[in-house]
Predict the structure.
Amino acid sequence: MALRREPTARQMRLAVELRKLRDAAGLTTRDAAALLGVSSAQISQIEAGLAGVSEKRLRRLAANYACSDAELIDALAAMATDRTRGWWEEYRGILPSAYQDLAELDHHATFRHDVTVIHVPGLFQTADYARALFAYMNPEFPESEVELRVEHRMKRKVVIEGPDPIPYETVIHEAALRIKVAGRAASQAQLARILEMSEADHVTVQVIPFALDDFAGAGSTLVHLGGTVPRLDTVVRDAPHGTAFLDSEAQLEHFRTLFRRVKEASLPPEQSRDLIHQLAKEL
């Protein structure tokens, strides 16, 4: 089987978890290779995400690694055997790989938590809002490139607007609600969209008001996607060099705590809707 040239974030996550299990067992790649009757190079390829692994081999490795977490093993087996080719595949080779990785992570997530300070969360953005953002951030792009990104962002909404939506909690700073990214009319439409989505049973919207005292979390922007088991959660953060996917246990626990603190500091959902209604009337 040919090696993958560009593993997806999900394929890389499976590879990382298998490497963690081997390291925890105190075994080398040569030891793991002997367990399967393959070369150590093949184990290295699996642990680099360049090659897949069958469910049978994965379960054999997990057993020999003395992993007793049945839920984790089942979740890894599901990742290893998943052959989903979602709507995002049509953008592969057209948009940067991070766009496909984010859409795939959304598709497989059990929940999603967002914290945004300057911009409205991507899953809430209207086409006009997203278009203004992409055009401003990439002034050298022709209209066709901007529209590709807008189209992709609109399709990603299926995870909260489709027939089988995931639980979604978002905390939005008042600053993001007040900034007129695309003019007055677009801002009104954007606030109306947030209010509409906040009424959905699976959606929780909370606002951090400007009036809040002692809030030092303005840099807390993050996306937290739930895995089948907590260990397989992923935190996504935008960095100067691109999109970063964080998955170490220490990082995940840090951002779980951070999200909890930001939520506790925010207005309750009903008061948040009242504030959004007020801002809409002021436009």
